[in-house]
Design a protein that fits this description.
- By secondary structure, the chain is α/β, with parallel strands linked by helices.
- The chain has 27 helices and 29 strands.
- Among the domains are: 141 residues; 158 residues, 3-Layer(aba) Sandwich (Rossmann fold), CATH 3.40.50.300; 88 residues, Helicase, Ruva Protein, domain 3 (Orthogonal Bundle); 82 residues, Arc Repressor Mutant, subunit A (Orthogonal Bundle), CATH 1.10.10; 128 residues.
- It has a 17-stranded parallel β-sheet.
- Helix 1 packs antiparallel against helix 2.
- The longest helix has 33 residues.
- Keywords: Leucine-rich repeat, Nucleotide-binding, Plant defense, Repeat.
Length: 904
């Protein structure tokens, strides 16, 4: 889509003009180009849609897109040359050497390095002037194309909220019952069940409803869910099954599991399952081989009525894997079900059609054209939810271009229409999500930082780029373009994924528009003009081609093959903005990284890289430096990285939650734009100088000495935007009493170290949502101070209280949803007053060895959904269905009782 390229270029030109990074003549040409592009933007979306049917429009768009790419190349080159001049690099060559140099040794759009700095700047300016003329010509020809004009009609709008949980049940109840009946069949031997159907029908949704149902949860205590996808690694899959089963059984995961080979893992899994009634779901299976590789680990004749479930798009795979008569075909929705799904998704369940007849006609036509495909209906509902006029709805309907005989083309047509409807600022962000592997958990914070580094995010007054990007993220979720897979303690989306059909659509568009190439099989190779590259599976051909790519802006590596390390030898991409090596099997970084002037995002998280180039501070444009969980022990100087926004330095976290940080050079901390600083090791200089970091949002400081407490408090008071704070002591306790006024936006607080009593400022934490206290040694009941915090949703006390009783007064902890009490070894009693903990969903009581009674008042906690309690043998008996305490917990859907370690 040309709109994607032009929108991105407009942002980049705006940033360049604002920063005054180029010569005066160049800035003038850029301003002229921006003005022409702004006019083009008025009709480019309609032209994009018209290009599918009109070849002349497609040719015009292609010329526009390639011109935009050329402008971006010259602009980046100009910025690079300006940076080199500022640093004193690229010394001017002598006339003789310049005369003898080659006229060109680079492809179109990238100027040869074999000329002097001044000459190269002159060439760039001339090329940009030529491109300005070309843009003007493109605009003039574009005006000759007739574009669709919308007319304003009746407006219909009312407040409504989409409810995806209710929507997911439409048409599923009878299917759910059938699968539950199969799973609970009295057949003793192992049974295999296949659920098959095309992508987008809701196979995973259906099986997930079954898997998480109360009946199945009670019947199968030993269970695991694994998403297979096309590019699974068998040892990783076996490890995941073992880990999930052991975690569900509340057993410890072997410390050496990552060192086990395939045969050892199969043996271990077989041992875990041999006497258990187990349920294993293998989601998104593409071939029979996955079952052939793990079947020896699944006991077939343990007579425990165990079950394996598969979901697949392939009928042959389904039939070959399933037991006789145990293939379930998921079919498209009937018309009534489809209408119900559309209404629940778009109109908040208004099945009576209480909206104007003109709107109903368009909605009916959309239901007909979606032909019962749930994914298509939900996505289209996401579009309709934001439409306010009949003409807009009619346009959505008319633009579906459905081919009824081909459901794959049908879903792509609907999804393509949803892509067209995205605002220009979301198109790049949506396409970018396809760089992640299939079914990959896309972390919200990570993708936001990547979008910012790529330049996809527009500035908005009063908000950081990251805050704007989070709005983008949420909007993609609301439009059903991304699916939430994890939420944090206060229900904020934490991780998402792309539906596989949606991802294939994005990959198709990205490749066609040269936006990004995703290499996830050995047959997919990047071209020399590739601008973004995601390597999911590496090959020698890819390594060879990498060395010839001159325009590459982003390189993301997900491949885990040992040959991935060869990629490091190719890191000479002068225009590179993103280098994400998260989890790659690499041990070193070449010094050439320091020459990547444009680099905004650099991650070696979860790698074995143990050192960084000493001259890393040459990366003047770097925004994110992610060293989390890597082998790097000491940070090079970053004092010159004035654009740095996020710095992650936590080297490891042990099983109790204690973090190990990174040593830093003795340079001044004056990075004014820094928002994230996690894992810095404290000293007297650090605790004073961090007061300069007034834009910090997240701050994790470790090994804090008690004597430095007052200085640290003084610095924290100046961090007025801080929303996440973790302070960990060196072993002698924390002194935080002098913090007179904590940052008002503070939402997460984690304190590790002896406090003896809660600081007075805790009563001012009106925005606090998550609080973790560890090794605090409190003598006074902390509930007295904490129960009135209005926003607190999660509280964890770990070795934090030395008293015998905790008492929650009437009406206390009104917002609290999760309460975890861990290793409170003197605790004997918990009292809950009337109306206290009125929102509590989860109560976790573990390793409290003196706690031999249920909390008083637990019977009144009507919202409680899960109780985990490590108990004595006597109390365990009293909490059984025939015991005297059972009536107090009978209302709780999930009760997990385990004998404490000290009584086993």
């Amino acid at each position: 889509m040309a709109e994607v390229v032009v929108g991105s270029l407009m942002l980049k030109i705006g940033s360049a003009l604002k920063a005054k990074l180029s010569q005066k003549a160049v800035r003038g040409d850029l301003a002229d180009i921006k003005e022409e592009l702004q006019e083009i933007q008025h009709f480019i979306r309609e032209a994009d849609m018209a290009s599918e049917d009109r070849e002349s429009v497609a040719v015009w768009l292609n010329q526009l897109r390639e011109t935009a790419y050329d402008i971006e190349d010259i602009l980046d080159e100009s910025i690079y040359l300006a940076g080199e001049q500022k640093r004193g690099g690229l010394r001017a060559l002598t006339p003789k050497s310049l005369h003898n140099s080659k006229k060109s040794c680079s492809p179109k759009g990238v100027i040869s390095p074999c000329v002097s700095l001044m000459h190269r700047k002159s060439i760039a300016a001339a090329q940009l002037n030529e491109l300005k003329i070309r843009v003007a010509d493109i605009l003039e020809r574009g005006k000759r194309y007739d574009v669709w004009k919308r007319e304003k009609t009746l407006v219909y709008k009312e407040a409504r909220e989409r409810r995806t949980t209710e929507s997911s049940l439409v048409g599923m109840e009878s299917n759910k019952k059938t699968l539950i009946d199969w799973l609970t069949d009295e057949t003793e031997e192992l049974m295999k069940i296949s659920v098959w159907g095309m992508g987008g029908l809701g196979k995973t949704t259906l099986v997930d409803l079954v898997y998480n149902s109360e009946e199945i949860g009670k019947r199968f205590k030993c269970r695991a869910w694994i998403t297979v996808s096309q590019t699974y690694v068998i040892v990783d899959m076996l490890r995941s099954v073992i880990k999930e089963i052991l975690i569900n059984k509340k057993e410890s995961v072997p410390q050496d599991i990552d060192a086990m080979n395939k045969e050892m893992l199969i043996g271990r899994l077989h041992h875990c399952l041999r006497h258990e009634r187990y349920l294993i779901v293998l989601d998104d299976v593409w071939s029979e081989s996955v079952w052939h590789e793990i079947r020896d680990a699944c006991p077939k004749k343990n007579n425990c009525r165990s079950r394996i479930m598969f979901t697949t798009r392939n009928f042959e795979v389904a039939t070959s894997l399933a037991s006789p008569h145990r293939v379930f075909e998921l079919k498209p929705l009937q018309y009534d079900q489809a209408w119900e799904l559309l209404c629940k998704s778009a109109f908040q369940g208004d099945l009576n059609g209480n909206f104007p007849q003109d709107f109903k006609d368009s909605a009916t036509a959309i239901v007909n054209k979606c032909d019962g495909l749930p994914l298509a209906i939900v996505v289209q509902a996401g579009l309709m939810h934001s439409k306010h006029s009949v003409s807009e709805w009619s346009s959505d309907c008319n633009s579906l271009n459905v081919i009824p005989t081909n459901n794959v083309e049908l879903s792509f047509s609907v999804l393509m229409r949803s892509f067209y409807d995205l605002p220009h600022y979301l198109k790049n962000c949506f396409l970018y999500c396809s760089v992640f592997p299939e079914d990959y958990g896309i972390k919200r914070k990570r993708v936001i930082r990547l979008w910012v580094a790529e330049g996809f995010v527009e500035e908005r007054e009063g908000k950081t780029l990251e805050e704007v990007a989070e709005e983008y993220f949420n909007e993609l979720i609301h439009r059903s373009m991304l699916q939430v897979t994890k939420r944090n303690d206060w229900e904020r989306p934490k991780e998402c994924r792309m539906h596989s059909v949606m991802r294939q659509l994005a990959i198709s568009i990205s490749k066609k528009q040269n936006f990004c190439i995703v290499c996830e099989d050995c047959e997919e190779h990047p071209t020399a003009t590739a601008r973004r590259l995601s390597i999911i599976e590496v090959s020698d051909t890819i390594i060879t081609v990498l060395g010839r790519i001159s325009r590459l802006r982003s390189l993301l590596v997900f491949a885990t093959d040992a040959s991935t390390s060869k990629i490091m030898a190719t890191l000479s991409f002068r225009l590179l903005r993103v280098l994400d090596l998260h989890g790659a099997p690499i041990v070193s970084i070449p010094d050439a990284v320091s020459t990547l002037f444009h680099l905004r995002y650099f991650s070696v998280r979860q790698t074995e890289v143990n050192a960084l180039p000493e001259d890393l501070e040459k990366l003047l444009n770097l925004q994110t430096l992610d060293l989390q969980y890597s082998g790097v022990q000491k940070l090079p100087s970053v004092v010159k990285l004035h654009n740095l926004r996020h710095l992650f330095m936590i080297r490891s976290v042990d099983k109790t939650g204690l973090s190990v940080g990174m040593q830093t050079p003795g340079t001044a901390w004056s990075l004014k734009d820094l928002q994230t600083l996690e894992g810095i090791v404290s000293n007297k200089k650090v605790v004073r100088e961090v007061q300069n970091l007034e834009k910090l949002r997240s701050f994790v400081i470790l090994e804090v000495k008690k004597s430095d407490g007052a200085a640290l408090c003084a610095s924290i008071e100046k961090m007025t935007f801080l929303n996440n704070l973790q302070v960990q002591d060196e072993g002698e306790g924390l002194e935080l009493e002098t913090l007179a006024s904590p940052p008002s936006p503070l939402q997460k607080l984690f304190l590790v170290g002896h406090l003896q009593r809660l600081p007075r400022w805790f009563s001012f934490l009106n925005s606090l949502k998550v609080l973790r206290l560890q090794s605090s040694g409190l003598n006074e009941d902390p509930f007295c101070s904490l129960q009135s915090l209005p926003m607190l949703v999660c509280l964890e006390l770990h070795k934090a209280y030395a008293g015998e009783e905790l008492q929650c007064e009437e009406g206390g902890f009104l917002s609290l949803k999760t309460l975890r009490l861990i290793e409170l070894n003197q605790l004997k009693q918990i009292r809950m007053g009337t109306g206290a903990l009125g929102s509590l969903r989860e109560l976790h009581l573990s390793r409290c060895r003196e706690l031999n009674a249920l909390p008083q008042g637990i019977k009144c906690l009507t919202t409680l959904e899960k109780l985990y309690f490590e108990v004595s043998e006597e109390l365990l008996q009293r909490m059984q269905p025939n015991g005297g305490e059972y009536h107090k917990i009978s209302h709780i859907p999930t009760v997990d009782l385990t004998l404490r370690d000290d009584v086993i």
